[in-house]
Design a protein that fits this description.
This protein has 431 residues and is of the alpha/beta class. 53% of the residues lie in helices and 8% in strands. The longest helix is centred in the middle third of the chain and has 18 residues, at 232-249.
């Protein structure tokens, strides 16, 4: 099987991709789990060695599955690798092998089934909004107790964000001033239901910069959670639906404001490689990150000053998967009064990694606490993140740390406040 056949092709791990690894060890300092435990088999190099054993005939054992499960899929190793090893492809293939061959314990199977029957479905997430809002204080108090019963349940209670009022977006937001472009907006699952204010800010910013923004109703999951968890067939179904949605909307460029969704949608052509007709349709759409798109478009609207110190967090699926690092910083630096400060070890994952902080809560908690301490050390008034999972993960860790509360906002919200001349308090108010 070649690298192009990760979508629905014959099962297996591509031996040619395995052979590109020369076991040099450049990946080791960048790997979060190797930093935590110092175990070779919990490094990219070690996991590739296990993949090679499996290709040569070793079955997927519980121990082997555990090492693959412990990987965050953050792709920092891909950035660091001098040999161009496609570890991102390899770990997706390995996880698909685990799902095909490995029989998990009943409790693990049940919890995974709960996650994958809930999070990719916006309507099901929407049904949780009222219960979560009514029980917010109770959840915070019960999270440690639930964690003693099952760490995964404690993580779910701890991570759920404060529920803000729903925002109903129109199907079309007209450009303000001269029309420069027409784009679609991917609203996402967690982003759309738990952070609707981010989607609203994104639409306003694009409109203020001269874009007609098409927001198709009834959007579903893009497939990110599935493709990163060894469920490529499920991911492909979500991908087809997303492609159809924006084809019907009549746009050829789709703006994405969640890092994990952005990296997956950009790879639709690879995911659907075994179906030439769908691959062509996937290539007919351009999916682009918000900061990436705005940087290309160039500023048109006036930036009003914001007197605020901002720490920018690099989401792994934005920095490593998409190579989008400079653009968000340039957008923030382009706002008068904004003082941008860097977070130490910014390339190391915060521990969110899609569903990782639910399936591997202990490791995720350690990484989250480390990231929260590094954020607090910046002295920033505001943390800016471009991924809902990172926002929930770091916000929960900051709460646990008991230090000065630092609100978390999306890049779109900071730009929105500047373009509309809102006060800094609109961003730094406790959430």
């Amino acid at each position: 099987m070649t690298a192009e056949h990760i979508g629905q092709g014959p099962p297996g791990i591509d031996p040619e991709l395995i052979d590109t690894c020369v076991h040099c060890g450049f990946c080791l300092p960048t790997c979060p789990t190797y930093q935590l435990w110092g175990e070779e088999m919990d490094s990219p190099r070690g996991r590739i060695h296990l993949m090679g054993q499996h290709v040569e005939g070793t079955p997927v054992t519980p121990e082997m599955a555990g090492h693959f499960d412990a990987c965050l899929g953050c792709m920092a190793c891909v950035t660091a690798c001098p040999s161009g090893v496609r570890y991102d492809r390899l770990i997706e293939q390995a996880r698909a092998e685990v799902e095909r061959e490995h029989r998990r314990p009943p409790s693990d199977r049940a919890f995974r089934e709960l996650v994958f029957r809930l999070f990719p479905y916006p309507r099901r997430l929407r049904a949780l909004r009222l219960p979560l809002r009514l029980t917010e204080g109770l959840r915070r108090r019960l999270a440690p107790l639930l964690g003693r019963i099952d760490a995964r349940l404690g993580a779910m209670a701890d991570l759920a964000p404060p529920i803000t009022p729903r925002v109903r977006l129109p199907r079309l937001v007209d450009a303000r001033g001269p029309r420069r472009a027409r784009v679609g907006l991917l609203t996402g699952c967690v982003q759309g239901e738990f952070f609707p204010q981010v989607n609203a800010a994104t639409a306003r910013v694009l409109a203020l910069e001269g874009c007609d923004v098409v927001i198709p109703p009834g959007q579903g999951c893009c497939g990110a959670l599935s493709v990163h968890s060894g469920r490529p067939e499920e991911a492909a179904r979500f991908a087809r639906r997303t492609i159809e949605t924006f084809e019907r909307a009549g746009v050829d460029t789709v703006v994405v404001n969640a890092a994990g969704c952005g990296s997956t949608t950009k790879e639709y052509a690879e995911l659907l490689a075994d179906d030439p007709a769908w691959q062509v349709r996937a290539k007919g759409l351009r999916f682009t990150d918000l900061a990436e798109y705005l940087a290309e478009l160039g500023p048109a609207a006036e930036r009003h000053p914001l007197d605020v110190t901002v720490a920018y967090h690099d989401a792994c699926h934005l920095a490593h998967a998409q190579g989008v690092r400079a653009q968000p910083r340039a957008l923030l630096n382009g706002i008068p009064g904004v003082r941008l400060v860097e977070i130490a070890q910014s390339d190391i994952c915060c521990g969110s990694a899609g569903t990782y902080n639910l399936f591997q809560p202990e490791a995720a908690r350690q990484l989250g606490d480390r990231k929260a301490a590094q954020v607090a050390a910046t002295g920033a008034d505001l943390l800016v993140s471009a991924n809902p999972g990172c926002t929930m993960q770091i916000a929960a860790a900051l709460r646990r740390g008991g230090a000065r509360p630092i609100p978390v906002a999306h890049t779109a919200q900071v730009l929105d406040a500047s373009l509309r001349g809102l006060p800094v308090s609109a961003l730094t108010a406790a959430r």
